[in-house]
Amino acid sequence: MVRSKIAFFIVGTVISISVQAQQNLKLNYNKPAENWNEALPIGNGKLGAMVFGGAIQEHLQLNEETIWAGEPGNNVPKNTFDSIQKVRRLINEGQFEKAQDLTNNTYPRTAPKDLNYGMPYQTMGDLFLDFKGHENFKNYNRTLDIEKAISTVSYEVNGVTFKREIFSSFADNVIMIKLTSSKKGSLNFNLNASTPHLKKSIFTKKNQLVINGTSGSADNKTGKINFKTIALPILKGGKLTSTDDQLNISGADEVVIYVSIATNFKKYNDLSGNPDVRVSEYLKSALNKKYDAELKAHIDKYQKYFKRVSLDLGTNEQAKKTTDVRIKEFGNSSDPDLVALYFQFGRYLLISSSQQGTQPANLQGIWNYQLNPAWDSKYTVNINTEMNYWPAENTNLSEMHEPLFDMIQDLSVTGQESAKEMYHARGWNMHHNTDLWRITGIVDGGFYGMWPMGGAWLTQHVWNHYLYTGDKEFLKKNYEALKGCALFYLDVLQQDPSKKYLVVSPSMSPENKYFKNVSITAGTTMDNQLVFDVFNNFINASKALNLDKSLSDEIKSTLSKLPPMQIGQHAQLQEWLTDMDRTDDKHRHISHLYGLFPSGQISPFRNANLAEAAKNSMIYRGDKSTGWSMGWKVNWWARLLDGNRAFKLISDQLTPAPMESKGQSGGTYPNLLDAHPPFQIDGNFGCTSGIAEMLLQSYDGYLYLLPALPDALPNGSVKGLKARGGFEIDMDWKNSKLTKLTIKSTLGGNARIRLAKNIQLKSKTTFITAKGENPNEYYQVNSIKTPLKSDQAEMKGFAVRETQLFDFNTEKGKTYIFDVK
């Protein structure tokens, strides 16, 4: 055992403190939004709004998280097990086209009359403030302050300055709009609303503007979400009058408008809530506070989460320009501060769209202006929903993860129906989509929907949360979901034609095809990787809780029969069980790289050949793609320790998105939201996660400091990043070299550190050069099978830079400050 020395200092018990934020935490514009992709998002997890900031007309497009079309009920088709059995036989016989045809006939592209393919998330509607005589405005400024979660508007008309503050309160279920002017009696405007719902009524009552409505119907479901919205203005000075459907404010000094929305939704199978009572309670609670107290409570609760992490990458003259201009110029200029803003904007969006007790963030977070948005703005779980929550743990927002866990609990119940009815299996499963009603059947037909792996991927978040927090009570609460998921695959795995392996059949590599119009197959690489993780998660959870030893042993035996990963003829990581990959395939999904990220089955240090094969697969697919795909690629290149390529993908994403309504060109809208196109929020979260992965990784048995720092970001500091085992990391670097390091240990245990070889550490206290596996229970690495390699594959080698690896023991609640040279 080699002993060395390192300088470090132990500080007393860790106390939650706010860290100093970076210099520029505002999105800034010099003109009102002309369309939805220029408006600015605010939200408190439950209520969302897009703020347009017009001088002549302020427009707030409003959302409430439970306004979805339809009603309770699953979408599991009946009497399809025999067809699945026939498809399995056809696949084993190599009759892939026939297998696809049978799958398509069994599960048609359009939902049958007695079924549905999920319900759309729907807008509530729109609130408008119309200002007379404000046509000739000047000195206009519009911002979104993501340090305080407030949108502001200011401009001047005839020597009078008008200001607005708008926020969705984290303290109460209200959106608040404060209007002021520099001259008393200058606020004159009308307040009105609209909603696209067919069942609706808009009227005024007791100085309130009221919108009642019922959500839409779709496929075989009737809209049964009843909602009520109230906008209540409180005036200082001036006069409030009303017509049948409009409030009129004249001569006011100051106006605060309270907006509340409530529905009858209580749970996916319970619509017994009373929106009238709820909306009144929300308003009453907010009205009990003065505006300044409400604002302070809002900021305090928001900053409890947001200020845990700061990122400073330096600034320059670009930071003085408006955000839309900075996006346009990013590819041809140096603007490190925009990268930091983009990182923090992702954290802002997660806090604003996913709070404890709310629904999880959907394809558009909580922001949607349509009744029938793209892909229904529901939960697509073959990548998109999971990507939404990639930043939850490593950017220190664990609480934001809770709505996803609540949904998994629901799905572990509703998914028992699809497991039993469709597959004659125990446990639970789902396919590639769900919605407010927790459907688990196939969506969008056999070509896209025959992928029984949704639960396998979602449950990775449960185990990952445990690894970051060490919360055994949480693990106990969610253990049955992990167990049920493992039971399903224990029952459905089939022998492959070679009789060597157990595989999932039928399934697919999400949304991709290997022959013309053929996606259905067996034993895809992603499926094998997912089942590997499902089984290991259950085995490890069973051990941690001392439960189900005999079942754990059975699953260990089955685990050993899964296929290994394979390197194909093009030196690529194979996507399918047989070597069918094409070097000209540019598909947006590169699902077989799940094993590289978010899983940790492929490591440059442990299996260089697999890392090289993954890299080759990435090169064949190319960089430019949909926004979410490029977000995933940032994480992949970070895991491959190529910071420059990861940064290139960030640059590709931080280019202006086309205003077309559909396509695969990616990019970023003027409001910094991600484009598929159209808008999907996952790319924002993917890039935030990727930036964190460039700075810190903890998946491979150690904390790797600055593993993929790009040349474009040579100087900076980050505070509050989270690693597995409850470690919180602060780092400074200069000229691409670590200069300061602080590690806070919230759980105690062994800390294993990997960092660049050229870092010198002063010696005051002994530490141990690391050998063997990390004894910290949260850093166990699951051993994979030796990969198979095609005889035609020409491997060139995968080089990693020299690093050093050391251990030191930590105590729970202590902070360790290192002297780095």
TrEMBL record:
InterPro entries (alphabetical): 6-hairpin_glycosidase_sf, 6hp_glycosidase-like_sf, AFCA-like_C, Alpha-L-fucosidase, GH95_cat, GH95_N_dom, Glyco_hydro_b
Limits of the Glycosyl hydrolase family 95 catalytic domain: 291-695
Domain Glycosyl hydrolase family 95 N-terminal, chain residue ranges per copy: 27-267
Gene Ontology MF terms in the entry: alpha-L-fucosidase activity
UniProt xrefs under Gene3D superfamilies: 1.50.10.10, Golgi alpha-mannosidase II, putative glycoside hydrolase family protein from bacillus halodurans
Pfam families with a match to the protein in the record: Glyco_hyd_65N_2, Glyco_hydro_95_C, Glyco_hydro_95_cat
Alpha fucosidase A-like C-terminal domain mapped to chain residues: 697-773
Position of the signal peptide: none
GO biological process: carbohydrate metabolic process
PANTHER family given in the database record: ALPHA-L-FUCOSIDASE 2
Official protein name in the record: Alpha-L-fucosidase
Organism: Chryseobacterium formosense
